[in-house]
Input
Amino acid sequence: MNENVTLAKWLNDEMNDKELKDFMALPEYATYSKIKEFSGQLTVPQADMDALYQNIARNRNKAHQPKVRKLNPWMPRVAAILVLALGITFFFYTTKTTTQIAEAGKMDTFLLPDNSEVVLNAGSEADYKEFNWDSNRKLQLNGEAYFKVAKGKTFDVVTPVGTITVVGTQFNVRARNGRLDVTCFEGKVKVTNGKETVFLTPGKTVAYENGTKLNLPDVKATKPGWLNHETYFGKVRLQEVISEMERQYNVTINLNAKAEKRFNGTIPMNNIDNALDQIILVYHLQAKKEGNIITLSAE
Amino acid sequence: MKQEQPIGICEELKFSAFFKSHAKALRNFLYYKFGNEEQADEATQEAFIKLWENCASVPTEKAKSFLYTVANNTTLNHIAHKKVVLEYSKKNVNHDTNNQSPEFLMEEEQFKVKLQKAIANLSEAQRSAFLLHRIDGKKYHEIAEILGIGVKAVEKRIHGALLQLRKEIDTFR
Output
């Protein structure tokens, strides 16, 4: 029966005489015949086709616009908001500055986007932009930091005193109160201070104080001493040494004595008594401790 | 069916002529599917408006099949189908009605009602094919074109429709 379409043939008057005769002999023929007859009398409820056409004519000219019009009030607004939001996000993202701060008495180690390592010494601040870091590796430093820079293009450390440019290296920068100390531990470092440019090789240090270049001895260590709480000072004013101690120990130290001589040497930064002893010994001072306030005065 | 309109259907006169020759059949067809006049009207309008919008890209000889393709697609968007309600033509009533016995007339009326119900119970595919033939007098190949199927498939649907109708009518005698 699957492919049998005899009824369709019959309905369409396609049967030959014999087929028709056989079909008419069937008991179901009476019903089929009636179906054919009465279904032929069926009609569809009719519509006003002219009105329908008028409707179409009216709508078809608007037809292009309605879709546009429906979207019109919203699409541009939504698009504008999206673009604006995107723009603002992008603006903030590109101009966003990441700030790392090491408070007094604390060190802070962090990684830059290219996994360069930076160790901030106490009381130091570093600002940089994460956006497009790989092709614009630039960092603003105020204070002291040790850098272990990943290989790549130039890496700039901008300080108030000068700019240090390096290629894949380890170096230390201290920028405090108008003085800049840069020590190279590995690779090559370029220090630009005003018009002067100095290249440093491992072990070399350069320092500028108020525009004057200071010659400092070579360093034998492979890392700055302060990482192990042993800060080296080369020809540094006592006031600066004391400031560094204040940052490291998070104390206030008042110096009530004249000390013209510059300090040369290493001061422990994890034992305040030892540190004070060294200062006292070199400068012939005496120390008085009251809580977090230390007063140094002449012996 | 005037299918030999010259270039494009974008012209008002051609479009209106095309509407006159095809709208009624299209509307009937949609009515068989939906069983709902409103939806049939709406879908007819939609199809013609779509045709107008695309008149530039639809060649005249393809306009009809475009129309039915759109109509067939609209069908899919309507889920709530209603029962098809068809009326019997008044003028086709037998001339010698007066000579018939009341019992015979009663029986005939009952049969007519049963047929209406049975048609309404057909599947959409069978009903469309069957009614396009019975009401619109379409040839099988025309129905095939409208439904987008082969002639053989149309014959199968018609055969199935008759089989189904006869069964339903005879069962509830």
Chain B touches chain A through 47 residues (CB under 8 Å).
